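Marked as duplicate of an earlier ticket. Keeping the data here for the record.
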Amino acid sequence: MYTVHEVAKLAHTTVKTLHHYHKIGLLIPEQTTDAGYRLYGKKDLVRLQHILFYKEMDFPLKEIKELLDGEINRENRLIQQKYLLEKKVNRLKGLIETIECSIESAKEGGDLDMEKMFKGFNTEEEWKEALKDHTEHLKSE
């Protein structure tokens, strides 16, 4: 069993965050001592990992709770989360390329081609669609 401080340190989060997750029913510790100390087990750490992955993908906490409260295979959930993270990485790489072109254009003092100026932003809808598809897939399971 892990204390709230140990879990916060392991997960690179704060005690306050873990208390909030407990308060909203997102992450309920396996045990609470008579003195009120929260104790987390392995199952809680697995759930916290999923919470942090979904948070990284900008899912609202309420939606994360709904997704995690369903009975879904851990392997399938991880595969889906990996897919979404890869999509996010690709989207961010596109934005980095766009900003690099803008920096280069600013250095040279020239005008940047309008298509290149907004190239990295064209995947926003794809990203939203991927999140929507993922949420629907998880809810259907």
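See parent ticket for discussion. The CA atoms of residues 97 and 120 lie 7 Å apart.
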